[in-house]
Amino acid sequence: MKKYIKIILSCGVLSASSSLMTSCEKYLDKEEQSILSAEDAFKNFNNFQGYTEELYHCIVNFSNNYYTNSFNWGEDEITSTAGNYHFVHKIDQGNFWGWQSQHDGWASGWMEQPDFTTEMNDNRTNKDLWNAAWYGLRKVSIGLENMDLMTEATQEERNLIKGQLLFFRGWFHHRLMEYFGGLPYIDHVLPSDEPLTLPRLSYHECADLAAADFKEAANLLPINWDETNPGKRTLGKNGLRINKIMALAYLGKNYLWAGSPLMNYSVAGSRTYNAEYCQKAAEAFGEMLSLIENGQANYALVPFDKYYLNFYTMKENWALPGSTEAIFRGPYKAANDTHYGTSKQYIPSLVSDGDALKFLPTANYVNYYGMKNGLPIDDMTKADPESGYDPQYPWKDRDPRFYNDILFDGVKVVNGTITETDMDKDLRRYAQLYTDGTYRNIQNGSQTGYVLRKFIPLTANKYDRDYDWGTNLHIYVPYMRLADVYLMYAEAALMGYNSISGKAPNYSKTAVDAVNIIRERAGVDNVNNKFLGSTEAFLGELRRERAVELAFEGHRFNDLRRWLLITEQPYTIKTAVEFDRGGENNIDDPSQNRILNLRERVLVERKFSNKHYWLPLKVDDVNMYPEFGQNPGW
Length: 634
What we know:
single chain, mainly alpha, Serine Threonine Protein Phosphatase 5, Tetratricopeptide repeat, 3 domains, two-stranded antiparallel ribbon, 21 helices, 14 strands, globular
């Protein structure tokens, strides 16, 4: 922030050589003839939209920001021991300073980078949340204060520009607030010749201001840019442009976060949900979902047999991942980067190229995946007797998302020819995840007994290259997808109206209905009646549903924090599963394999205190002026 306040306070002119500004230092090196006056830069839609486009490059691609990528910081994921430089390691140690680049020796994080730029160059590691948000907020303020210079434009064009700017102002603040709490709300151009005195606001004060921006953006923006006159000039290429659906989605999320226990506790001292904010969230989500279900917006849940399209596409598609379900995502740079880095950070080195560091699902988190009949299991050794779970056959009849997301013992990984002769080829071809199996390696394999496959085809290995080499594989995890909205609506409706039949006045479905929509898509039975007797009983099952459906998509850390659970057991524990095979591997259906001596082993126990509910702000920034105070405990 300090660096970018210094830069943006002195920057007030634009370059005509590009629609994307980079920084004032780079601008000032340009030839005099490339400089446009503000009157020219903002006078019409094309010029103003060129200015606005740079904000899209401030949306950090957190799933592909480094060679290996850390974005799951709850109790959901752990890495192999090949490296300890990612933020997830710092979090496990209670060192939340690790989000900052000076505390990250490899500069591998997406929350702060030392060389931030909005250019789409060959370096994918120079985008980060902290710098992009403050830079973007300055840019938004300049744009909004120059709206009156947009004289050669229709009202529709003016609305499109203003709507985008307002959305980004709300979004940048919301993203920062998720991690740091209430902050100054930047709603004007900060003068360069006056000292900073902007105070930190409470979370609710910030959320109210963000809500006002999201609301106005929703009123100004179209549902579909292709149906606007400016959008017809870029027909078919408007999928990432901010629209009414995105604004309503983030309006709802902003309200739900404000109504969550952590935020309510930080402002009002109550560890419960704030019903008023939850009701507002339910109404925002209700309006959005009604537009979609009535056919007015081109969004829909992806059929389960195409579920992978939410996260990756192959050479036959060529499209940006997300399909009809992605609500919000940013620009996508290069498929080859995601192939070599992201796709290789999951499969054990025994059968993959790339970095030795592997990102693994913890056994305790995999336990959230219940049974196909919708009932949960408590842990690997026991379960609800009605569930049908058998510890001797722990992979049998599980939630279909378990098979989609998790690579377990005995699953076929390699289709192609294996050339190595130093071991039985089947010890590579099929996942050997039992205790002491060939896929179990604490340094460059699995130390938990599981492998994550949600974001990659299993053909992303060194033997099946023809399926995914180079630009054939595109991986991108969206910020928000439609399934997330249904589950946020369910939570908001449940806690806003304190009833399992709670629903927004502008939407026909109850909280239970919304959860069942997601389960039905996955082929899982509806929420069992035993969880429908009270709000609290259903809330637990709703949270489990959220854990499963949105697993490993970067939501869990913030969910545990906002629910005031990150300091509580069992959410502080990360475990591995240990077992022996009870017979030969069933290569046709490994879910039928018998298991012996099944047990869980603790790998990490996090020692957190109340200060860990918020990340610490940068020391240089909190020392800039007294009103910008540090978070408690740091």
